[in-house]
Specification:
Oligomer: single chain
Strand content: 15-25%
Helix content: 25-40%
Shape: globular
Distance between the termini: 54 Å
Length: about 600
């Protein structure tokens, strides 16, 4: 595989996958009618090409071993049922439900027909607001079979965040449980309906009827047999290039954006991810990632349609003890997690010592993981194949991924190998390619790129170039062997007295201390140097440490300007529900509590 990589010329690059530009709504957003602007664009492209020939540019394309699949989610589900009709597809431990592929499709088409009777049609947005339940699986597939666009909404969202999502994309109907944790969903949705004129139907899955809403169970059985059968006959009316899902960005840095993803992206991204991880029909997956997030959707729900294996829902939302018990009970071979989730898992396993004999492989993503964390996972959970994935909501899910069975050094020190049918380039601040081995912003051009940000023409244009590159905002290094390392988010970089400092480098070093479970580094305002380093440390269970002990550990091992001036020991970090640590909130907390100086306010 690795020998198939080449730096590509402009001629070859022009043939790279650009299907996302075919979507009429988004294409119109990316098209310019100004001749002068097009001439400038062509000049910029040619400048990059000329520059890439002058240096050994960090620019490559991976053609893959098999062609891209032009299928929809609905067609893929049909094929899975044909191949594995009586195999178990889904297990929900908290709901005590098991469904074969045939049973799953029957419920999916029944709900799809019921939604059609309510007046929902191709292209309408269907909200899906809730935790990991069987109803999520059924609803997502039903929407795909009907040609609707699923709007995945974070189950932890509060009233104003919910209203923002519904209004942003014009949701016509929404499906939700009656409650989750402290949330009263029907009450919040009924209030939202008053200010969201497009919202016509609120569908609640609950044994009891809630006034002003419809029951999920009633909608699911409302259609006739002929109406249900008609759903299967209409699958050829849906294009693989149609929008399938709107994923809101995580909100780790501010207001969420509505990312539109196609059927083609979801089908192929899950297929390639399964191939890289060498997942087989016998490998049960313990799914602890949320389904509203791209990681869980691609690596859990859609992936099983390619392999015929079962996915096990351990709990409605991540619980490390429930994950470990599910693995032991169901003999799961694969499980996932963000770095924070993996820390929680190994701490729980230290206490429980449950049998993990069935576990063969793990995958981490969503945030950078240190090599020290990889070693702890292997040592405590007892399997060798710990892998990384890297991607964005805007790239469907996976762009770089470890190769199962590769040298541990590669999986620990990189985010993996460039995915099949993906093109990557590292550019400097002038958008010109840098040499291999040098850092710059990572750009991606691939089938998996989003169609657009819904209703955000200007932000879409700033993120997607006219020739199809998606600007990730991540500072990365690309090597000639196809592997990449993520240095950090461009916006997270600290500048201390003219020295550029990427927090991840310091975080990875601090994680080598045996007492430290996690480390997060943020910038602190300084009148002299501009910024100073602040380390927020989470210690391992029963460990104690002083600031002097930490700084003494750093001396002589990292540059003096990287040694944290401020140190705060914390019990937990502010996080999104997908486990991403919100550094902007962490910084606000440190400033509000007086740990670090507050940044000066600008009028």
């Amino acid at each position: 595989m690795l020998s198939s990589f080449n730096s590509v010329s402009r001629c070859a690059a022009s043939k790279i996958l650009k299907f996302h530009l075919n979507h009429s709504r988004c294409f119109s957003m990316l098209r310019s009618n100004h001749k002068e602007k097009r001439q400038i664009q062509r000049s910029n492209i040619q400048a990059r090409v000329n520059f890439s020939h002058a240096i050994k540019a960090a620019h490559m394309y991976n053609p893959g071993e098999s062609p891209i699949t032009d299928k929809t989610i609905g067609q893929l589900l049909d094929e899975a049922v044909t191949m594995w009709p009586e195999r178990t597809s889904l297990v929900s431990i908290p709901q005590n439900i098991r469904l074969t592929f045939t049973q799953l499709l029957r419920r999916v088409d029944s709900l799809a027909a019921g939604l059609k009777k309510l007046g929902l049609k191709k292209g309408d947005r269907l909200g899906l607001w809730g935790p990991n339940d069987v109803e999520w699986f059924i609803t997502f597939f039903s929407a795909a079979r009907l040609g609707l666009i699923v709007v995945a909404i974070n189950p932890a969202y509060q009233q104003n965040e919910l209203v923002y999502c519904l209004q942003k994309v014009g949701v016509k109907a929404i499906i939700s449980p009656d409650k989750f944790k402290t949330q009263n969903y029907p009450k919040m949705l009924l209030a939202a309906k008053e200010v969201c004129p497009t919202l016509e139907h609120i569908i609640i899955y609950s044994p009891d009827h809630v006034t002003g809403t419809r029951r999920f169970a009633d909608v699911e059985v409302s259609a006739t047999t002929a109406e249900v059968d008609a759903i299967a006959a209409e699958q050829d009316k849906i294009s693989c290039n149609d929008g399938c899902s709107i994923q809101f960005t995580s909100g780790s840095t501010g207001r969420s954006k509505a990312t539109l993803i196609s059927h083609k992206s979801l089908v192929n991204n899950s297929k390639e991810a399964a191939r890289r991880a060498k997942i087989t029909i016998e490998n049960k997956i313990c799914l602890n990632m949320p389904l509203f997030h791209a990681f869980g959707l691609v690596m859990g729900q859609v992936l099983i349609l390619h392999k015929g294996n079962a996915v096990v829902i351990e709990e409605r939302s991540f619980n490390p003890v429930k994950t470990l018990k599910a693995i032991a009970q169901e003999k799961c071979a694969i499980t996932y997690g963000t770095p924070t989730m993996w820390v929680n898992l190994i701490e729980a396993q230290q206490r429980l010592q449950l049998p993990m004999d069935s576990l063969q492989a793990g995958i981490t993503g969503g945030a950078p993981a240190s090599s020290e964390l990889f070693k702890r996972i292997r040592g405590l959970l007892g399997f060798n194949d710990m892998m990384s994935i890297y991607g964005l909501t805007e790239t469907t899910a996976v762009v770089f991924q470890s190769l199962r069975g590769e040298d541990w050094h590669l999986s620990e020190s990189t985010v993996g190998h460039l995915g099949n049918h993906c093109e990557a380039m590292i550019v400097d601040k002038n958008n010109l390619p840098v040499p291999f081995g040098k850092s710059g912003e990572l750009w991606i051009r691939s089938y998996c790129n989003m169609l657009c940000y819904w209703n955000d023409e200007e932000i879409t244009k700033r993120t997607l170039t006219e020739d199809g590159w998606l600007k990730t905002g991540d500072q990365a290094v690309l090597e000639e062997n196809g592997y990449a390392t993520i240095v950090g988010r461009l916006k997270d970089m600290l500048i201390r007295g003219g020295e550029n400092i990427f927090p991840r480098e310091i975080e990875d070093f601090l994680m080598t201390h045996p007492k430290i479970a996690q480390a997060q580094v943020i910038g602190a305002y300084d009148e002299v140097y501009g910024e100073e380093v602040c380390a927020c440390i989470q210690l391992r269970e029963n460990a104690t440490m002083t600031k002097n002990e930490l700084t003494d550990y750093c001396k002589g091992k990292i540059a003096h300007f990287k040694i944290p001036r401020y140190v705060k020991f914390v019990d937990e970090y502010p996080k999104t529900t997908t486990g991403k640590i919100q550094k902007f909130r962490l910084k606000e907390q440190m400033e509000d509590s007086g740990v670090i100086p507050a940044s000066p306010k600008h009028s």
